[in-house]
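Researcher: Batch entry, complex prediction.
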Amino acid sequence: MATVRVVLPYHLYTLARCEAELALDIAGPVTLRTVLDTLEAAYPPLAGAVRDRATGQRRPLIRFYACQDDCSNLAMDAPLPDAVATGREPLVVVGAIAGG
Amino acid sequence: MPRIRVLVGTRKGAFILTSDAHRRDWQVSGPHFGGWEIFHIAGSPANPDRLYASQSSSWFGQVIQRSDDGGITWNPVGNDFSYVGDPGTHLHYDGTSRPWAFKRVWHLEPSPSDPDTVYAGVEDAALFRSTDGGQSWQELPGLREQQGAKWMPGAGGMCLHTILLDPVNPARLYVAISAAGAFRSDDGGASWKPINRGLHSQYIPDPEAEIGHCVHRIAQHPARPETLFMQKHWDVMRSDDAGESWFEVSGNLPSDFGFAMAVHAHDPDTVYVVPIQSDSEHYPPEGRLRVYRSKKGGNDWDALTDGLPQQHCYVNVLRDAMAVDALDPCGVYFGTTGGQVYVSADAGDHWQAIVRDLPAVLSVSVQTLP
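Model: Structure tokens for the complex:
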């Protein structure tokens, strides 16, 4: 069981009524899919807000950053960096800088 | 004394405006859901404290919020708007076919008799219904069977924006879609038929086609439900046979382009529209914000200007941004893309701004509370 830190943008943590940074216990491999599955199970209002409901893919204006890298285009089942899996670094969910 | 609650959806949140029956002094609550687009908020006629709000964002998608205390507190409910089966494709602006994809909820229409039943009109156009207070949503797919592959977006997207639940016949529903047209169901939403005979639209290859008209709004009076009024992309239309046929009632309007429309609460022949210069210039003719009222069911229109800006006004009034209350005299309300919400407490003769500096107003609905 890994404890993964996830940082949410303002609109998502206010929607979920949670803290901006969460600690999620992940069973099995630490991937975008397992982290997001756990996040949505713990905070149901976030279902559809990060991943498109129909496709299961990242919404176009959502980005994922970790360890100062852009993980947005990682495959959903690819392992996240060890520093994320061990909780030393957070997975940061970002609303893309677009529009106003 | 009755009270009035005005539910305002804007580009950056929701606002709730309340007053006593004089409709002179207003309290403003909000923003609720600050920073989110609130396409529509609607109250249940069966339980006025039950409100539904469509909250959306290009970043974070669709949320439906529900309040059970008149908008003091809210909770997110279901946001899974999955089409039934493979929805196939519809036409795009350029004539190509695109897959159907859910984008947002434009309009919420609560049942007049059951607070837990509410309809949602969505983009890409379809009609959904919830019977559990918004926790889950089921599409009524018979609507898309009406030549859905030929529907195409209007400038705002391919949206189902108008839902009328017939006040006499519970099995009868009307919807309107930009740009597909108007449709009617006589079996509770299971099957549908296009009701666009008499519409003439020069922006489609066959101006009198059964499908493809950009209907902006339909309005109805509960005492005469077979009479419908329509603000089309161009033309103000009327039907006296539940949409089987339409005829134009634009009459002496300075422009018959527009979006918003409402019918007086107590007089089925009194109709309100807000003419807009053109589809290329989304502002009032001559920079003068005028509501036009017909007391004869159309054709003969009078400009209502007292209290409205009559120079340098270049706002728009969107399709869901006009409503009436049920008091006597009837109150009329509308919101603008400039952030003003206006009220007339005397059926349109005089106007005052309730608020002037909100974000662009997307929708206005009104509850008359006991």
